[in-house]
C-alpha cells in the first residue's frame, strides 16, 4: 500500500493555490492605502483563486481537512483585513463593520465545529430541510456568485473611500462614483450572504446544544 505523507498533503495542488491566495492577500494590504485600482486587482485575483482550489481538489482527488481549513481561514482573514481598513475610512460605521466581522467569523467557526463534533465530514453537507443553506452550499454556482457579490460589495465600499474615482459617466445615470454603483449592484447577493451567516450560526448552535443534551443524558443514565 502506497502511503500518503503529511508533506504531500501540504503540497497538494489546491493547497498550493491556497498559499498563493495568502500571498496575494498580504500584497493587497501593502497596496491598500494608496493604490485602490491595484489593490482591487490583486484582491480580485485572491478571490478568483478561491474558486479554483476547490475545482482542482475535485479534479485531482486531493481534498483534505487542512485544505478546507486553509480555505476558510484565508476567506475570513482577507475579508476581515479589508473591513479593518473600512473602519478607518468610515469611522462612523465602525460598529457596524465590527458586528459584521463578528458574525462572519463566529458563524463559520461554529458551523465547522458543530459539523465535525456531530460526526459530519464536510461543513458543506447540509440537510434539505435547511433549504437556504442547502442551496448555498450544495450548488457551486450559487456559492461562488454569493461569495463574489459579498467580497465585491466590500471592495465597492473600499473604492468609495477614494474621491478620485467618482467621475464616471454611466448611461442614463450621469456622473457617479464607481464604488457606489458597484455596491448597489452587489447589494442583493451581499444581503443573502448575511442572512446565510445568521441561519448557519443558529443551526450550529442547535447542533451543538443537541449533542450536549445527548451527552448529558448519557452521563445521568450511566
From TrEMBL:
Catalytic activity of the protein: a CDP-1,2-diacyl-sn-glycerol + myo-inositol = a 1,2-diacyl-sn-glycero-3-phospho-(1D-myo-inositol) + CMP + H(+)
PROSITE patterns cross-referenced by the UniProt entry: CDP_ALCOHOL_P_TRANSF (PS00379)
Top-level lineage group: Eukaryota
EC number per UniProt: 2.7.8.11
Record's bilayer topology term: Multi-pass membrane protein
One GO CC annotation: Golgi apparatus
Primary enzyme class: transferase
Molecular functions (GO terms): CDP-diacylglycerol-inositol 3-phosphatidyltransferase activity; metal ion binding
Coiled coil feature spans: none
TM ranges: 142-160, 172-192
The UniProt record lists the keyword Cytoplasm: no
Major subcellular site: endoplasmic reticulum
Pfam families: CDP-OH_P_transf (PF01066)
GO annotation terms (biological process): phosphatidylinositol biosynthetic process
Keywords assigned: Endoplasmic reticulum, Lipid biosynthesis, Lipid metabolism, Magnesium, Manganese, Membrane, Metal-binding, Phospholipid biosynthesis, Phospholipid metabolism, Transferase, Transmembrane, Transmembrane helix
Subcellular location per the Swiss-Prot or TrEMBL entry: Endoplasmic reticulum membrane
Keyword Transmembrane helix included in the entry's annotation: yes
Essential cofactor(s): Mn(2+); Mg(2+)
PANTHER family: CDP-DIACYLGLYCEROL--INOSITOL 3-PHOSPHATIDYLTRANSFERASE, PHOSPHATIDYLINOSITOL SYNTHASE
The family this protein is said to belong to: Belongs to the CDP-alcohol phosphatidyltransferase class-I family.
Protein name: CDP-diacylglycerol--inositol 3-phosphatidyltransferase
